[in-house]
Amino acid sequence: MSVLVYAEHDNATLNKVTLSVVAAAKEIGGDITVLVAGKGCGAVAEAAAKVDGVSKVLCADNDAYEHQLAENIADLVVELAGDYSHILAAATTTGKNFAPRVAALLDAPQISEISDVVDGDTFKRPIYAGNAIATVKCADAKKVLTVRGTSFDGVAEEGGSASVESVDVVKDAGISSFVGEELAKSDRPELTSADIVISGGRGMGNGDNFEILYKVADKLGAAVGASRAAVDAGFVPNDMQVGQTGKIVAPNLYIAVGISGAIQHLAGMKDSKVIVAINKDEEAPIFQVADYGLVADLFEAVPELDSKL
Amino acid sequence: MKVLVPIKRVVDYNVKVRVKADNSGVDLANVKMAMNPFCEIAVEEAVRLKEKGVVTEIVAVSIGPKAAQEQLRTAMALGADRSILVETDEEVQPLGIAKALKAIVDEEKPELVILGKQAIDGDNNQTGQMLAALAGMPQGTFASEVNVADGKVKVTREIDGGLQTVELSLPAVVTTDLRLNEPRYASLPNIMKAKKKPLDVKTPADLGVDLTPRVTTEKVEMPPERSAGVKVGSVDELVDKLKNEAKVI
């Protein structure tokens, strides 16, 4: 067996979720090659070469890969797919975007969001918003997997000494182009890797009221998330959504504020170590999964919490 | 232009499914079924494009059991002009569905395919991308805004870091995210009219595709259950518990 891991990055820094994907690759077994595709991504390739357990890094540095357009990246991965038995990517919006294209072009099945490796052919994954865990098996010689980052403890960033090979394959499908992006700027930790997450729901009332969560977050070094209801209502942008179709988080501490606890939200956070719920409705379903529940008006409880931290 | 909207019949999103006692799957007997919510958003987007005069014909398609005709009728009540059911009682998986859809695309030659980014049963998030690859089309996944102009489609995508906009040549595949639109409800007169709209039934054999699953489900289990903890009486007690009992702050 040999595994190709697609590195998640922004052309400057290797995203830590890649360490979790390498951890999944290690459980599968065999040599691990990491592909870094981007533009001006040499530093990322150098970082990937140091990751524990990686035996080789392929660096495809070209204009065509700058914005990770699925059409170009998929064609590149297919070109390099050669003898790899498993092709892995993080279940991020990048991985979810190009990986199924790779699978289809290789006529290989994809298993999405694996949460556990049973053996090289058998994996566990959540279905129905995490209300069931399926153990699935695929005997095909080549398979594509996306990996749920929060389900695997990342390998060490240092310790490896892989060689870096540059790849001069240029795949520009010419059918899609990048127009622009609006990326959230925040000094707070990233939602999916933060130790503490504090999230607000519909109960926050409006976007300005999230300010009280930001204050608490800054004292705790926490990331701030939101329920779908809060995003749909326009309180906060989509990149803050935690849930079945948003981000999956599993911090040490998750504080749900003014969130009722729809199953779609629980799907995104119920693997958190400790869950706190603050809600004025004592019947809210969120209390059924919370380790500590506080029935209170959030506009009194959160500022008080802020003052006591 | 013609738009193809693939849809899926799934468990209603309000239903909390139960795992069968023999761990062979989830219990779908007597459970309310509905159109996958992301597919409703796809139908709505197609209808809005038609209302804007961009789209002239909307064809809904589903691959699944006979009962999926209900969801196709719903799509037609919402504004689809006609529909196709590729009928099969076997389990279907994204790669097989994408192959069947590719065959439909070859027949129908739509300029745009709009479908949900994922179905809320399997949570796979694969079919649109696979179809795009098989059909050699570009893709705009997780769309929160779609603009068709000058033979191209501009798609704003919800990505982990925020929003990204891409421009795709046509024909193209777009997969819908939650914020793309708010689907309308079908009116009674439109539900009545939908009963008279054409619904073609085909078989996978008609399309010459093999839908045999490539991934087998060994077992399905309940996730580790989280039990409710304690209610604390005050913020002071909460801070104390987090510091001294859970030791997480």
From TrEMBL, chain A:
Cofactor binding, note field: Binds 1 FAD per dimer.
Free-text function comment from the UniProt entry: The electron transfer flavoprotein serves as a specific electron acceptor for other dehydrogenases. It transfers the electrons to the main respiratory chain via ETF-ubiquinone oxidoreductase (ETF dehydrogenase).
GO molecular function: electron transfer activity; flavin adenine dinucleotide binding
Names of the cofactor(s): FAD
SUPFAM superfamilies according to UniProt: Adenine nucleotide alpha hydrolases-like, DHS-like NAD/FAD-binding domain
Domain Electron transfer flavoprotein alpha/beta-subunit N-terminal: 3-182
Keyword Transport: yes
Entry protein name: Electron transfer flavoprotein subunit alpha
Keywords: Electron transport, FAD, Flavoprotein, Transport
Gene3D superfamilies named in the record: HUPs, TPP-binding domain
InterPro entries on file: DHS-like_NAD/FAD-binding_dom, ETF_a/b_N, ETF_a/FixB, ETF_alpha_N, ETF_asu_C, ETF_asu_C_CS, Rossmann-like_a/b/a_fold
GO annotation (BP), single: fatty acid beta-oxidation using acyl-CoA dehydrogenase
Domain of life of the organism encoding this protein: Bacteria
Family: Belongs to the ETF alpha-subunit/FixB family.
Automatic annotation (TrEMBL), chain B:
Positions of the Electron transfer flavoprotein alpha/beta-subunit N-terminal domain: 23-211
Any one GO MF annotation of this record: electron transfer activity
Highest rank taxon of the organism: Bacteria
Cofactor(s) the protein requires to work: AMP
A Pfam family it matches: ETF
Gene Ontology biological-process entries: carboxylic acid catabolic process
InterPro entries documented for this protein: ET-Flavoprotein_bsu_CS (IPR000049), ETF_a/b_N (IPR014730), ETF_b (IPR012255), ETF_beta_N (IPR033948), Rossmann-like_a/b/a_fold (IPR014729)
Transmembrane segments: none
PROSITE patterns attached to this UniProt entry: ETF_BETA
This protein's record includes keyword Electron transport: yes
Assigned keywords, A-Z: Electron transport, Transport
Function text: The electron transfer flavoprotein serves as a specific electron acceptor for other dehydrogenases. It transfers the electrons to the main respiratory chain via ETF-ubiquinone oxidoreductase (ETF dehydrogenase).
Family: Belongs to the ETF beta-subunit/FixA family.
Subunit structure: Heterodimer of an alpha and a beta subunit.
Record's protein name: Electron transfer flavoprotein subunit beta
Organism for this UniProt entry: Alloalcanivorax xenomutans
